[in-house]
Design goal:
Radius of gyration: 22 Å
Largest sheet: 8 strands, mixed
CATH topology of the largest domain: Rossmann fold
Strand order of the largest sheet: 9-8-11-10-12-13-14-15
CATH superfamily of the largest domain: Alpha/Beta hydrolase fold, catalytic domain
CATH class of the largest domain: Alpha Beta
Number of strands: 15
Structural class: alpha/beta
Mean pLDDT: 85
Shape: globular
Distance between the termini: 48 Å
Oligomer: single chain
Number of helices: 14
Strand content: 15-25%
């Protein structure tokens, strides 16, 4: 695979076209050549307003770095690599205590018992992510205030986001809860909101599980409740491009685990083994999972949403997001680079939507999908909505 990164930090993955045999050479053996097509990008010239290409060579966009790395550990073994199995193995479902310092601890029997003493705050991360990566930028003072409000009863749910659909994730959480009594408030990001809604709304076969678990409030942060077109298989290239670009802006080690998951998906796409990825398919607009979830119900729920209409400050990023090839997929609808606002809070067939209780970030604030939790407005909204 090739990874190109231009001078503005915009990252693009390039997958090989069909390998062809090398001709006209005297090399020994049966050699093949792989070709990678790297598209040029044109920008308006600052001097004349005429179209120009980046860099000094006509027709060639400026590439700051191109990285090539092997996809297989060994011939044959690497070709069997499948991201679904990798995701399940590397991201087992775990419910753990989440302390104000951001550290995760195993829930002992005594700790589980303590959770039944009052309301519990649950954090649920999004696609490619983990608790540490997803919520690591929430200010320490906010985590401390929430921990105090909930009497130390703060937990997090880590889970595979590519391998399983949100119902399977919710089932794993509810089985861990068992017959314990839990009164939950939930803060969730991105696809984690679909998992959280499944825990609260119990679609499919979840109704009989954990009968003493009750959900009060859910704060949906950048959640694709009506899907995101980037989850459609036709747009997986855009999905990994955007995820990698956003992650490249975050400090290590915050983005390390998330980047590893993105790389696993990229590898599987390149090898042609990225099939039946229920975790991504669940976010496809109009797909089977969302049709199951977004239905009328007698219980309206208490949902709050944090959304953003992202407008980059950099002219280069404006050009990238306005590119006909890349961003017309959102049909110019307000979005946070990953999900359109109407999917986050608009009507979708569920009685719980549209969400009226909103914290909205406008274009001038330039808050994209991975930046919600570092914003003062997010902390203010969490402390306003979550009484503990």
């Amino acid at each position: 695979m090739l990874l190109s990164r231009d001078e503005h930090g915009i990252v693009t993955w390039h997958f090989a076209e069909k390998a062809r045999r090398r001709t006209g050479t005297a090399t020994r053996g049966d050699r093949k050549v792989r070709e990678y097509r790297v598209a040029t990008r044109t920008v308006a010239s600052a001097r004349s307003g005429a179209a120009a290409t980046r860099g000094g060579i006509p027709g060639l966009s400026k590439i700051i770095e191109v990285i090539s790395f092997p996809v297989a550990d060994a011939i044959g073994r690497g070709a069997r690599f499948a991201v679904r199995e990798w995701d399940t193995r590397n991201h087992p479902s775990l419910v753990r205590a989440y302390d104000p310092s951001g550290k995760l601890r195993e829930l002992t029997p005594a700790a589980w018992k303590k959770l039944s003493a009052g309301p519990v705050l649950l954090f649920v991360h999004g696609t490619f992510s983990s608790t540490v990566d997803g919520f690591g930028r929430l200010p320490a003072r906010t985590r401390k205030a929430l921990d105090e409000r909930y009497g130390g009863r703060v937990i997090a749910f880590d889970h595979p986001t590519i391998a399983d659909d949100p119902i399977a994730n919710a089932r794993a959480f509810l089985l861990a809860a068992g017959d314990r009594e839990l009164e939950l408030d939930i803060v969730c990001h991105s696809r984690g909101g679909l998992v959280s809604r499944a825990i609260a709304e119990r679609p499919g076969d979840l109704a009989g599980l954990a009968p003493r678990v009750r959900v009060r409030d859910i704060v949906l942060v950048g959640v694709p409740s009506n899907g995101t077109i980037l989850a459609d298989v036709k747009h997986w290239n855009e999905l990994v491009d955007r995820a990698t670009t956003l992650l490249s802006l975050l400090p290590l080690p915050v983005a390390a685990d998330t980047m590893e998951t993105v790389l696993a998906l990229v590898r599987s796409i390149s090898l042609g083994t990225a099939r039946n990825l229920k975790g991504l398919q669940a976010m496809v607009p109009g797909g089977e999972f969302l049709a199951t979830l977004n239905v009328p119900t007698a219980d309206p729920g208490r949902y709050h949403a944090i959304v953003s209409d992202y407008e980059p400050r950099s002219s280069a990023w404006k050009e990238w997001l306005g590119d006909v090839v890349r961003d017309r997929i959102f049909e110019d609808a307000p979005n946070d680079m990953m999900v359109v606002i109407d999917s986050m809070a608009g009507e979708n067939g569920s009685s719980r939507f549209p969400v009226a209780d909103l914290q909205s970030f406008g274009p001038q604030q330039a808050v994209e999908h991975s930046m919600y939790f570092e914003q003062d407005g997010t902390s203010e909204a969490l402390l306003r909505w979550l009484a503990g």
